[in-house]
Protein backbone atom coordinates (compact mmCIF):
# COMPACT_ATOMS: atom_id res chain seq x y z
CA UNK A 1 0.00 0.00 0.00
CA UNK A 2 1.07 3.56 -0.45
CA UNK A 3 2.09 5.20 2.77
CA UNK A 4 2.37 8.84 3.62
CA UNK A 5 6.11 9.67 3.92
CA UNK A 6 5.30 12.56 6.28
CA UNK A 7 3.51 10.25 8.65
CA UNK A 8 6.07 8.84 11.12
CA UNK A 9 3.88 5.82 11.87
CA UNK A 10 3.51 4.68 8.28
CA UNK A 11 6.86 5.75 6.82
CA UNK A 12 8.61 2.87 8.58
CA UNK A 13 6.54 -0.03 9.91
CA UNK A 14 9.08 -2.03 11.95
CA UNK A 15 7.43 -0.82 15.14
CA UNK A 16 4.38 -2.94 14.23
CA UNK A 17 6.31 -6.23 14.55
CA UNK A 18 5.81 -6.58 18.29
CA UNK A 19 2.02 -6.50 18.01
CA UNK A 20 1.84 -9.96 16.43
CA UNK A 21 -0.56 -8.97 13.64
CA UNK A 22 -1.31 -10.68 10.35
CA UNK A 23 -0.22 -8.94 7.17
CA UNK A 24 -3.74 -7.73 6.48
CA UNK A 25 -4.16 -6.50 10.05
CA UNK A 26 -0.95 -4.54 9.70
CA UNK A 27 -2.20 -2.97 6.50
CA UNK A 28 -5.48 -2.13 8.23
CA UNK A 29 -3.64 -0.38 11.09
CA UNK A 30 -1.53 1.63 8.65
CA UNK A 31 -4.54 2.64 6.59
CA UNK A 32 -6.47 3.57 9.72
CA UNK A 33 -3.62 5.77 10.95
CA UNK A 34 -3.71 7.68 7.67
CA UNK A 35 -7.50 7.96 7.54
CA UNK A 36 -9.47 6.84 10.61
CA UNK A 37 -12.32 5.15 8.78
CA UNK A 38 -12.78 1.48 9.72
CA UNK A 39 -14.67 0.38 6.59
CA UNK A 40 -12.35 2.11 4.11
CA UNK A 41 -9.27 0.94 5.97
CA UNK A 42 -10.47 -2.69 5.94
CA UNK A 43 -11.14 -2.48 2.21
CA UNK A 44 -7.72 -0.93 1.60
CA UNK A 45 -6.16 -3.77 3.56
CA UNK A 46 -7.86 -6.29 1.28
CA UNK A 47 -10.81 -7.44 3.42
CA UNK A 48 -13.77 -8.26 1.25
CA UNK A 49 -16.48 -7.09 3.63
CA UNK A 50 -15.05 -3.88 4.95
CA UNK A 51 -18.27 -2.73 6.51
CA UNK A 52 -18.46 -5.67 8.91
CA UNK A 53 -14.77 -6.50 9.13
CA UNK A 54 -13.65 -2.95 9.85
CA UNK A 55 -15.43 -2.47 13.19
CA UNK A 56 -14.51 -6.07 14.16
CA UNK A 57 -10.83 -5.30 13.55
CA UNK A 58 -11.09 -2.30 15.84
CA UNK A 59 -12.23 -4.67 18.61
CA UNK A 60 -9.07 -6.76 18.25
CA UNK A 61 -6.72 -6.01 21.16
CA UNK A 62 -3.57 -6.29 19.05
CA UNK A 63 -4.97 -3.95 16.42
CA UNK A 64 -6.15 -1.51 19.07
CA UNK A 65 -2.76 -1.42 20.75
CA UNK A 66 -1.00 -0.92 17.44
CA UNK A 67 -3.29 2.01 16.55
CA UNK A 68 -2.71 3.52 19.97
CA UNK A 69 1.05 3.31 19.57
CA UNK A 70 0.91 4.68 16.03
CA UNK A 71 -1.15 7.65 17.17
CA UNK A 72 1.28 8.38 19.98
CA UNK A 73 4.09 8.47 17.40
CA UNK A 74 2.15 10.85 15.18
CA UNK A 75 1.30 13.08 18.12
CA UNK A 76 4.92 13.25 19.20
CA UNK A 77 6.00 14.17 15.69
CA UNK A 78 3.31 16.87 15.48
CA UNK A 79 4.41 18.33 18.80
CA UNK A 80 7.99 18.47 17.57
CA UNK A 81 6.88 20.12 14.32
CA UNK A 82 4.76 22.63 16.23
CA UNK A 83 7.64 23.40 18.55
CA UNK A 84 9.98 23.89 15.62
CA UNK A 85 7.54 26.21 13.89
CA UNK A 86 6.92 28.22 17.05
CA UNK A 87 10.67 28.55 17.55
CA UNK A 88 11.06 29.69 13.94
CA UNK A 89 8.45 32.46 14.35
CA UNK A 90 10.10 33.54 17.58
CA UNK A 91 13.44 33.75 15.77
CA UNK A 92 11.88 35.83 13.00
CA UNK A 93 10.17 38.14 15.50
CA UNK A 94 13.41 38.83 17.33
CA UNK A 95 15.65 39.00 14.26
CA UNK A 96 17.67 42.16 13.73
CA UNK A 97 16.87 43.63 10.29
CA UNK A 98 20.22 45.43 10.43
CA UNK A 99 21.83 42.10 9.78
CA UNK A 100 20.22 42.10 6.35
CA UNK A 101 21.27 45.55 5.22
CA UNK A 102 24.19 47.63 6.29
CA UNK A 103 24.32 51.40 6.20
CA UNK A 104 27.80 52.77 6.27
CA UNK A 105 29.06 56.34 6.22
CA UNK A 106 31.79 56.40 3.65
CA UNK A 107 34.02 59.42 2.92
CA UNK A 108 32.99 61.70 0.08
CA UNK A 109 35.44 62.10 -2.78
CA UNK A 110 36.83 65.32 -1.26
CA UNK A 111 37.33 64.01 2.31
CA UNK A 112 40.83 62.65 1.86
CA UNK A 113 41.90 64.16 -1.46
CA UNK A 114 45.05 66.28 -1.42
CA UNK A 115 43.96 69.85 -0.69
CA UNK A 116 40.41 68.41 -0.54
CA UNK A 117 40.41 68.02 -4.30
CA UNK A 118 38.51 65.14 -5.91
CA UNK A 119 40.23 61.89 -4.97
CA UNK A 120 40.29 58.98 -7.40
CA UNK A 121 40.19 55.32 -6.41
CA UNK A 122 42.99 54.33 -8.75
CA UNK A 123 45.01 55.71 -11.58
CA UNK A 124 43.03 53.49 -13.91
CA UNK A 125 39.74 55.05 -12.80
CA UNK A 126 41.14 58.53 -13.47
CA UNK A 127 42.62 57.59 -16.85
CA UNK A 128 39.43 55.97 -18.11
CA UNK A 129 37.17 58.78 -16.89
CA UNK A 130 39.44 61.36 -18.47
CA UNK A 131 39.59 59.47 -21.77
CA UNK A 132 35.80 59.23 -21.90
CA UNK A 133 35.46 62.97 -21.25
CA UNK A 134 38.04 63.86 -23.88
CA UNK A 135 36.38 61.58 -26.39
CA UNK A 136 32.96 63.14 -25.66
CA UNK A 137 34.21 66.73 -25.92
CA UNK A 138 36.50 66.55 -28.92
CA UNK A 139 36.06 64.91 -32.27
CA UNK A 140 39.44 65.88 -33.68
CA UNK A 141 42.10 63.20 -33.15
CA UNK A 142 44.97 65.67 -32.69
CA UNK A 143 43.03 67.60 -30.10
CA UNK A 144 42.15 64.39 -28.29
CA UNK A 145 45.78 63.38 -28.18
CA UNK A 146 46.87 66.79 -26.93
CA UNK A 147 44.21 66.70 -24.20
CA UNK A 148 45.24 63.23 -23.10
CA UNK A 149 48.92 64.28 -23.02
CA UNK A 150 47.94 67.30 -20.92
CA UNK A 151 49.48 69.84 -23.29
CA UNK A 152 46.25 71.82 -23.40
CA UNK A 153 44.56 72.95 -20.20
CA UNK A 154 40.80 72.59 -20.24
CA UNK A 155 38.78 73.00 -17.04
CA UNK A 156 36.20 70.54 -18.33
CA UNK A 157 38.75 67.73 -18.31
CA UNK A 158 39.22 66.08 -14.90
CA UNK A 159 42.63 66.23 -13.25
CA UNK A 160 44.19 64.11 -10.56
CA UNK A 161 45.32 66.87 -8.23
CA UNK A 162 43.43 65.19 -5.37
CA UNK A 163 45.47 62.05 -5.82
CA UNK A 164 44.49 58.42 -5.53
CA UNK A 165 43.45 55.97 -2.86
CA UNK A 166 39.75 56.73 -2.33
CA UNK A 167 38.14 53.89 -0.41
CA UNK A 168 34.52 53.39 0.62
CA UNK A 169 35.69 51.55 3.71
CA UNK A 170 37.47 54.59 5.18
CA UNK A 171 35.77 56.95 7.62
CA UNK A 172 34.64 60.43 6.50
CA UNK A 173 37.06 63.27 7.30
CA UNK A 174 35.51 65.50 10.01
CA UNK A 175 37.41 68.49 8.54
CA UNK A 176 36.07 67.97 5.01
CA UNK A 177 34.81 71.31 3.61
CA UNK A 178 32.48 69.52 1.18
CA UNK A 179 30.54 67.16 3.46
CA UNK A 180 31.44 68.55 6.92
CA UNK A 181 32.44 65.07 7.96
CA UNK A 182 29.06 63.52 7.22
CA UNK A 183 30.41 61.60 4.25
CA UNK A 184 28.02 59.74 2.02
CA UNK A 185 25.61 57.03 3.11
CA UNK A 186 26.05 53.71 1.42
CA UNK A 187 23.54 50.88 1.87
CA UNK A 188 24.34 47.36 0.98
CA UNK A 189 22.65 44.01 1.30
CA UNK A 190 24.47 41.49 3.43
CA UNK A 191 25.92 38.44 1.76
CA UNK A 192 22.82 36.26 2.12
CA UNK A 193 24.92 33.09 2.03
CA UNK A 194 26.43 34.09 5.34
CA UNK A 195 23.22 34.92 7.17
CA UNK A 196 22.37 32.90 10.27
CA UNK A 197 19.45 32.42 12.66
CA UNK A 198 16.62 34.91 12.58
CA UNK A 199 18.20 37.10 9.91
CA UNK A 200 18.38 34.14 7.57
CA UNK A 201 14.74 33.31 8.27
CA UNK A 202 13.80 36.93 7.62
CA UNK A 203 15.51 36.72 4.26
CA UNK A 204 13.96 33.32 3.48
CA UNK A 205 10.62 34.87 4.43
CA UNK A 206 10.78 36.59 1.07
CA UNK A 207 10.56 33.21 -0.53
CA UNK A 208 8.28 31.31 1.84
CA UNK A 209 5.09 33.20 2.46
CA UNK A 210 3.28 33.15 5.76
CA UNK A 211 0.34 31.62 3.97
CA UNK A 212 2.40 28.67 2.82
CA UNK A 213 3.63 28.14 6.37
CA UNK A 214 0.09 28.16 7.74
CA UNK A 215 -1.04 25.72 5.04
CA UNK A 216 1.85 23.41 5.87
CA UNK A 217 0.98 23.69 9.55
CA UNK A 218 -2.71 22.81 9.04
CA UNK A 219 -1.96 19.80 6.85
CA UNK A 220 0.33 18.38 9.50
CA UNK A 221 -2.33 18.82 12.12
CA UNK A 222 -5.20 17.31 10.15
CA UNK A 223 -3.08 14.24 9.36
CA UNK A 224 -3.29 13.05 12.93
CA UNK A 225 -6.67 14.65 13.68
CA UNK A 226 -5.29 15.88 16.96
CA UNK A 227 -5.96 18.92 19.05
CA UNK A 228 -2.81 20.78 19.95
CA UNK A 229 -3.01 23.15 22.85
CA UNK A 230 -0.51 25.95 22.55
ZN1 LIG B 1 33.82 64.77 2.66
UniProtKB/TrEMBL annotation:
<dbReference type="InterPro" id="IPR038713">
    <property type="entry name" value="Terminase_Gp1_N_sf"/>
</dbReference>
<dbReference type="InterPro" id="IPR005335">
    <property type="entry name" value="Terminase_ssu"/>
</dbReference>
<dbReference type="Pfam" id="PF03592">
    <property type="entry name" value="Terminase_2"/>
</dbReference>
<keyword id="KW-0231">Viral genome packaging</keyword>
<keyword id="KW-1188">Viral release from host cell</keyword>
<protein>
    <submittedName>
        <fullName>Terminase small subunit</fullName>
    </submittedName>
</protein>
<dbReference type="InterPro" id="IPR052404">
    <property type="entry name" value="SPP1-like_terminase"/>
</dbReference>
<dbReference type="GO" id="GO:0051276">
    <property type="term" value="P:chromosome organization"/>
</dbReference>
